[in-house]
Design a protein that fits this description.
globular; alpha/beta; secreted; about 450 residues; about 25% strand; seven-stranded parallel sheet
């Protein structure tokens, strides 16, 4: 992996816009007075808000802005520079901290084409969608029992997409759209004003010129990102909790950030508020039978030795949101290689899926040799200068964001085969892992985890 280590220094500055590194123990609230900050307060009771919680917040100089009752947490604003010190004195509080911001993964984008501009008779799927072919063995999996191909009957399997929204009027998605909700302040519509979420949704369940891994799966939009910028931890946690309450079968989270701990031992403990909240939300969903899938990140670093993210090998970094109980996905290319941008690491990756890259001749250090045909192609909205949807199209992107939804779709396909509510998330994960293809070392490895996902193997596993 020596070439990857060299690559890191040149790519971090470009990719860091997709992820925020947080220093546990240093908060804006303690450093600045007369400034209103937003905090998360996590209570010891995981299944509700304890008696006296409002009084404890008020006593510390805070005001409750949002309640996550089922996760035992609240979002709080305060101008008190000593709010954290004061609220942590309460016997009902487990942890509190500045609320962090998470972003959709930054992707490598190619050109887009409008639906109406496709050449008459052109076969978009066969010409561009190598990634879907790779997972489905050229569509073979669609024709297997439970393969959720082009003519499957039975109960609907819904994949919730926690992202920038979905262009639910896109001709390749509208028949498979199962509704949505927005958690973005000031934006009630779960429509996509970015393109990221629609691209993700298309990889799951597009059915038209583009095809997803499960063309008869359903997708639901849980929008947490506005036209630009990031999302508060509490909004993402609330979206995940809501998706679970809505009884979706799978959730895809192609988003993330990092929490940095000066003491490496802290990375294994739920001591930071946003890590604690994410873990509770993930476990809440899994306990309700939802298979949760997430992207590994695009910083080209070894997450098992993540001090490098903070500039050296001291300390440790936690990928947020992430948990060993969910499915964590690295990104591969058309040549079944690890994509140059993909994070990796022993114990940090479960499987690899095609996320696209820029071809075998691409030099990340210089940008030379770029070939956009190696990107992953899917559905996207066409946006005007004000980020309003004015049309529908297709575009290429590269990122672990593009890899994760293939795994989410495969999870949906596996559930469809065995029957809704017949498998728990751990069993779904085990099937996906055990049916994956060894592409690097035999067995488990740092780059691909248990291997490259394979829908045919997953549907025929004994």
């Amino acid at each position: 992996m020596s070439t990857r280590k060299k690559l890191y220094a040149g790519t971090l500055a470009v990719l860091l816009g997709a992820a925020t590194i947080f220093n546990a123990g240093v908060t804006k609230g303690e450093a600045e007075s007369n400034t209103e900050n937003t905090y998360l307060v996590i209570f010891k009771d995981q299944q509700g808000l304890p008696s006296g919680y409002a009084e404890a917040i008020k006593k510390a100089g805070g005001q409750v802005e949002d309640k996550l009752d089922k996760l035992g947490a609240v979002e709080v604003t305060s101008k008190n520079a000593n709010f954290l010190n004061e609220v942590k004195k309460s016997s009902i509080v487990l942890e509190a901290g500045v609320e962090n911001t998470v972003y959709p993964e930054q992707t490598f984008d190619g050109e887009t084409v409008e639906v109406e501009d496709l050449t008459e008779g052109a076969d978009f799927y066969n010409q561009y969608m190598w990634d879907i072919k790779q997972v489905t063995n050229n569509g073979e999996s669609w024709n297997l029992p439970g393969g959720t191909g082009l003519s499957v009957d039975g109960e609907d399997i819904v994949v919730g997409v926690i992202d920038t929204g979905i262009d639910y009027n896109h001709p390749d998605l509208k028949d498979n759209y199962a509704g949505g909700k927005s958690f973005v302040p000031g934006y009630d519509d779960p429509i996509d004003q970015n393109s990221h979420g629609t691209h993700v949704a298309g990889s799951i369940a597009a059915k038209g010129e583009a095809l997803g891994v499960g063309p008869d799966l359903k997708v639901a939009s849980y929008r947490v990102f506005g036209p630009t910028g990031g999302a508060a931890t509490s909004h993402i946690a609330e979206a995940l909790m809501t998706a679970a309450d809505d009884n979706v079968d799978v959730v895809n989270m192609s988003l993330g950030g990092y929490d940095w701990f000066q003491d490496p031992a802290y990375a294994t403990k739920d001591i930071v508020a946003d890590v604690q909240l994410f873990n509770r939300a993930i476990q809440y969903a899994i306990q309700k039978g939802v298979t949760v899938v997430g992207s590994a990140g695009n910083n080209a670093v070894d997450l098992s030795s993540p001090g490098k993210l903070s500039g050296d090998d001291t300390g440790s970094t936690h990928r947020s949101p992430s948990s060993q109980t969910m499915i964590r996905v690295s990104a591969g290319g058309a040549l079944k290689n690890l994509a140059f941008y993909s994070n990796y690491g022993v114990g940090k990756i479960d499987v690899m899926a095609p996320g696209g890259d820029l071809g075998p001749n691409y030099d990340p250090a210089t940008g030379d040799g770029r070939d956009n045909s190696y990107l992953a192609f899917s559905t996207v909205p066409l946006l005007d200068a004000n980020k309003n949807v004015i049309g529908h199209g297709y575009g290429g992107k590269g990122g672990t964001s593009m890899a994760a939804p293939k795994v989410a779709a495969l999870a949906g396909v596996v559930i469809a085969k065995h029957g809704k509510d017949k498998l728990n998330p751990a069993q779904v994960k085990a099937i996906i892992q055990s049916s994956s293809e060894d592409v690097f070392e035999n067995g488990y490895d740092a780059e691909s985890g248990h291997g490259l996902i394979n829908a045919v193997n997953a549907l025929t596993i004994k």
